[in-house]
Every structure is written in structure tokens, then in C-alpha cells.
Amino acid sequence: MSSAPWWTPRGFSLPHTAAPAPMRVFLVRTVGVGAGAVGLLVMCSSLGGVLGALLATRLCRRRGSARAMVLSQAVACPFALLLPLTTSG
């Protein structure tokens, strides 16, 4: 376990990995999504992480690390904005 504060890059992993847990509870209890569908969503996000890790070096070499970071956030963040559009059912 890292002794770094959570707000530093080294200590950021705990809240970053704990954040999806309430979303899974929300999907099951409020939206009514089945366990299999939640598992499929978790699998897709894990595959996205692996794909991002495979492409990160190439993207950083081609665009630079700062531009690669901004580009990855610009591509990923709009999907988080879809969460308020969920409805039960």
C-alpha cells in the first residue's frame, strides 16, 4: 500500500479504482440492470483499459504526453456525461 496522499499521482489509484463501485450498485438497484449486463460493462471497461495501455506509448510518441493526456480525456469524458440520462427499466 502506498503511503502517498491520495491526491498525488502515486496515491491516486485507490479513489480512482473505488469510484466505479457505487456505479455498479446504482445500475443494479436503481436502473434495474441485470448482473450479466453489469459484468459485460465491467469487461468492456477493462478491455478499454488494456487497449489504452497498448496505445499509450505510441500516442505519446506521436503527439507528446500532454497532448495525449488531453486527447484521451476528450475522448473518454463525454461517455461519463451519459450517466445522468439513465432511467429505470
Characterization of the model:
- The chain is mainly alpha-helical and 89 residues long.
- The chain has one domain (13-85).
- The protein has four helices and no strands.
- The protein has helices at 13-18, 20-31, 35-63, 65-80.
- The radius of gyration is 16 Å and the shape is elongated.
- The mean pLDDT is 80.
In terms of topology, how is this protein built?
Layout: H1 13-18, H2 20-31, H3 35-63, H4 65-80
Helix pairs in contact: 3-4
Overall, the morphology is elongated
Helix content: over 70%
Mean pLDDT over the residues: 80
Could you describe the largest sheet, including whether it forms a barrel?
Answer: none
Span of the ends, CA to CA? 40 Å
Beta-strand segment tally: 0
**What percentage of amino acids are in beta strands?**
under 5%
Secondary-structure element series: HHHH
Provide the number of structural domains. 1
Helix segment tally = 4
User: What is the C-alpha radius of gyration, as a whole number of Å?
Assistant: 16 Å
Q: How does the helix and strand content classify structurally?
A: mainly alpha
Which spans of ≥5 residues are poorly predicted at pLDDT below 50? none
Organism: Streptomyces cellulosae
Keywords: Membrane, Transmembrane, Transmembrane helix
Protein name: Major facilitator superfamily (MFS) profile domain-containing protein
